[in-house]
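Suppose you are handed only these lines of text.
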Amino acid sequence: MSEIKNSLFIITGAGSGIGQALTLKALAEGAHVIASDVNEKGLDETIAKTNGKAEKYILDVANHDAIKLFAKTILQKYPDEKIILVNNAGVGLASGNFTETPLEDFEWLMNINLYGVVRMTKAFLPHLVQQNKGHIINVSSVYGLAGMPTNSAYCTAKFGVKGFTDVLKAELLGTNVKISSVHPGGIKTNVAKNSRISVTQDIAKAKATMAKFEKVALKMTAEAAADVIIDGIKKDKSRILIGSDAKALDFMVRLFPNNYHKIIAKVFKL
Ligand SMILES: NC(=O)c1ccc[n+]([C@@H]2O[C@H](COP(=O)([O-])OP(=O)(O)OC[C@H]3O[C@@H](n4cnc5c(N)ncnc54)[C@H](O)[C@@H]3O)[C@@H](O)[C@H]2O)c1
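From them, the structure of the protein bound to nicotinamide-adenine-dinucleotide can be written out as follows.
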């Protein structure tokens, strides 16, 4: 069992959805929380909900220099605390099939959803290893376990987060530093409505598809998802699946590794 109480709980993407809910839950668990986001308005809302108890940092996880400065500032201020770092910030992209996906949108998404996680880990992990304590939680997705049509960039990034985390799990064996990947199914947040729409897409059609997806697939609340993550951290789970949809998809992929894409295509009537 891992203690969250008195830890230094650092969250990226804390201005909305799962990150905001996690900020509140971690505070309730007795952690000192550093809430960061690129979106100041959302982050201010989160900080207001904590009655100013969480520390606020504007941080763009796509900016390597900003991350280096952020880590330096935090580690100088809190050199001895046990760090729990949740790499949660992420974005969505409505770009159609891969052939319609502009490479610049693919790269934009990878820069946030994959390299953001890699950069943050690079900035903090050496300190955790040196201290021989702490926990990094990387938010992937069920789309990091199953390939989903029209999500080439998102799935590539989220599979990348899983692969990266799995490598570090092996490298950190024998230390007291923990690392976990999180695979949520559909969670009711702003991720779909804030998705970038590629120039190749019809905007009205893309918005209608996203609204439908939101209604049909995003069922669980961010609070319930945050509860599962908090529970997973406490239990030192190395892989945290969130929701029955995530569990069902994960099972299907393992049961039909060669053919699950055909089932997915049928279900999504492609
Ligand atoms: N909601 C879901 O159904 C779902 C499912 C699986 C995985 N996820 C993942 O969960 C994580 C949280 O997403 P959410 O659903 O709460 O979405 P959300 O849109 O509500 O919150 C994402 C937050 O990340 C922030 N962000 C975006 N780009 C950033 C950047 N460059 N630097 C720092 N912050 C940035 C946004 O400002 C926002 O506050 C994401 O990684 C997402 O991919 C979500």
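What can we learn from it? Residues 12-13, 15-19, 37-39, 42, 59-62, 88-91, 112, 139, 141, 184, 186-187, 189-191, 194, 218, 222 surround nicotinamide-adenine-dinucleotide (CB under 6 Å). The CA atoms of residues 67 and 73 lie 10 Å apart.
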